[in-house]
Write a structure and sequence with these properties.
3-stranded antiparallel beta sheet; 8-stranded mixed beta sheet; alpha/beta; 13 helices; 13 strands; homodimer; globular
């Protein structure tokens, strides 16, 4: 299509760009006429992924004994922290002692929300309720997960963006801020296969987290280990240091709340979720939780335990997910590589797990790219969503969620995204030239 | 056993009482030696009740289509307010328009907790967050439900007891307080087969509720319709006016939150719960709820819908519960009648539905009665639990929960309760006489 494949757009003449742009607009118009209707906005499992958990529906039937190992009838009220075998299963998944694990309902997001909500009204282990403080701040590694930011924004917590690197967030900045500002009460982390970049925190990063010296004694790390066993490859996996144990070793045993769920393992919305934390935090949580509920769905806990048997069963199950997801990620990555390599108008991450690929384009292009995709029938996550308050200051990041569409559709969508990226980037470069503004190349570092 | 059955203890001589006491103590000691171990503390369904819902475990299997009527795959994320057919089923159960119903997780208690929590931090439909006010008060009809009082106490809300009559709470007092004190933000109500008395609000009571003129524009009635279809008899049922419609007719459309769940219909802890309220309140709720969750367990919603088919199926199912519960209630009532009639030391309610019988004894006896029962192996709800802060000022009320034990055990427990009541009452009467304090007879009004 273009005369010189892989030539940097930044090095093309105006004429070359104009010619390229015209060709691309023709292609874009063809896409528009095709009336695509694809959604890559959310990290939503596809039908084939849901199908592999259908055995969940058979594991309990009317002849089943619905008592758990200690004899408790799971059909009745009670057991605030979850049945023992569910705590063990989730503990194995989260790499935590079952005693340090509390099972909740169907959503780890709700646990995080409830944790912030409780801290606002009742403080943390006896501290001043956050709502009574003149200001409460959270550190937010960016790009990050929009629903995290949604919770903190809802409670009026001021969010401070912290840059993400391949190794995790900027620890120098975090150490400085956390140790000097007592109004900083927490940080949102997705430490493994991060949302949206798919980066995993390095050993050094986790160790520095565990050794933070917060000015606020009620500072907590919100460690959302959403993708802890969500690998794409069997032979290439990220491993991170277990944070609760590391904090304990570092003399900061109470500094972390860790969250996980089976939402992307069995059925999203019908799974079980858990928090792992220190005994002191757990006591604090249970003091509140006993007012909020008599107990979560134990039949569903039992269903999960019986379906997987144990953590090995769960790990095997995750390979089935990987087999479905891997080609989808690769398809997107291949098309982006084909279409964008060398053009210096963006790069994309190539994660080994999780649910997202993150694209970073030229400054001031993300919104327009997402908008153009939308107009041709492909819905991406709203540009800016990966930043606090929905504001990506340089308008560069786009989150790509390859899980839901079919591979064929994904290829179309990735192709369209590439076309839109090229169009919007050329327009931006030309606009910059007209305004005598330098265009900063965006290439993989 | 006693010389003159049905003679009032208050009219007996000291000698008669002493003789009666000695006989009763002998019987009590026999109970102690038998080593009973029965629990009547909570409104917990018995095994036979759970068994009638075992069909729930078969209604979905791996061949089932888990899409709901509008085609949504219930296995995946989404549908914040619940699937349409669950809203219809719960709407039919609650006598509300499905559009006015939001489906939550497994616990209506959690909805109530979350509702208070949200009002504390974010106010109600734009009002000042309650936590920012110098004082927030709730009216608490007494005796009432301890978990309601637990929530308001946890949030530091001042609780004001309001006496309960056969017809519902003291509406004169409620009208006075609510219209004059803007710090009164809510009232806890269990309008049908109330916990613990089993009283149902009269038409006049509901109509007066709907016509309240609260000084606080963010005053809300917390209408916990926990026992809306939980009748004990088919031919004798209480009916109450539907409060949301009545409020709408009275020009107070936004004044009520109404709660219900299937906890005592299918499996406690594994059911579905719902709130019904006005469109304005619903908008207010959803603005918060979207941060707390992506959606509740839709597979379980579908399971409930498919199990019952429709409200008729649910009503038929409730007859099976009634057949199990009715003889239990009657057994307790019969024994209390045999043992206590005429003695003027207490009366008990005879509800047509719900989960509790409420016993009211002489002033200053409830704690000791519960304590003596405990020492002979029968655990009752803690005395005082039915009052805010756990303090029953005259120490008179005991909640009896007949659902869980077998009939044989129940009879033993009711007998023991009667013996303990008689012992403690005689001791109290004799103590009063010694101190020249009049003993006020407690008889059914």
């Amino acid at each position: 299509m273009c005369d010189e494949t892989n030539k940097s757009y930044l090095k093309m003449t105006d004429e070359e760009l104009q010619s390229e742009l015209e060709q691309l607009r023709t292609i874009y118009k063809k896409y528009q006429r095709r009336g695509l209707n694809l959604n890559m906005a959310r990290g939503k499992p596809c039908k084939e992924q849901l199908d592999i958990s259908m055995g969940m529906m058979d594991v309990l039937n009317s002849s089943s004994d619905l008592c758990c190992a200690d004899g408790t009838d799971c059909r009745n009220y009670g057991v605030l922290g979850g049945i023992d075998e569910a705590r063990e299963l989730m503990g194995d998944m989260m790499e935590n002692n079952p005693k340090d694990v509390l099972i909740y309902g169907n959503s780890s997001l709700s646990i995080m929300y409830d944790t912030i909500s409780r801290s606002m009204t009742h403080g943390v282990m006896g501290s001043t309720p956050w709502i009574q403080l003149p200001e409460v701040k959270f550190l937010c590694p960016v790009p990050g997960y929009d629903r995290h930011f949604g919770i903190t924004e809802y409670f009026g917590i001021k969010m401070i963006p912290v840059p993400m690197f391949h190794t995790g967030p900027d620890m120098d900045m975090i150490e400085d801020l956390v140790s000097s500002d007592p109004s900083i009460k927490g940080i949102w982390c997705v430490p493994k296969y991060s949302n949206p970049q798919g980066y995993s925190y390095s050993d050094e990063t986790v160790m520095r987290f565990a050794r933070l010296k917060p000015a606020a004694h009620d500072f907590r790390i919100f460690w959302d280990n959403a993708y802890c066993i969500h690998h794409l490859y069997e032979d290439k996996q990220d491993h991170i240091i277990e944070i609760i144990a590391e904090c304990k070793r570092a003399g900061n045993p109470d500094m972390v709340y860790k969250f996980a769920s089976t939402s992307k393992i069995t059925f999203p919305g019908s799974g079980i979720s858990a928090i792992a934390t220190s005994p002191n935090n757990m006591e604090d949580i249970e003091e509140q939780l006993k007012h909020q509920t008599i107990g979560y769905d134990k039949v569903n806990q039992l269903r999960h335990v019986r379906f997987f048997g144990d953590i090995h069963g769960m790990v095997e199950h995750m390979k089935l997910h990987a087999d479905i997801l891997r080609p989808k990620f690769e398809a997107v990555e291949d098309i982006l590589a084909e279409e964008l390599t060398g053009k210096e108008i963006g790069y994309w991450t190539k994660p080994l797990g999780g649910y997202f690929i993150c694209f970073k384009g030229l400054e001031g292009t993300a919104k327009k790219i997402v908008d153009q995709c939308k107009k041709a029938g492909v819905t991406l996550t709203k540009a800016g969503a990966t930043w606090p308050y929905g504001i990506d200051p340089k308008d560069q990041y786009i989150r790509i969620a390859p899980s839901f569409p079919s591979i064929e559709d994904l290829k179309e969508a990735a192709k369209l995204l590439s076309i839109c990226t090229r169009i919007v980037s050329i327009e931006k470069i030309m606009e910059n030239r007209k305004n005598n503004v330098e265009t900063v190349a965006v290439v993989e570092k």
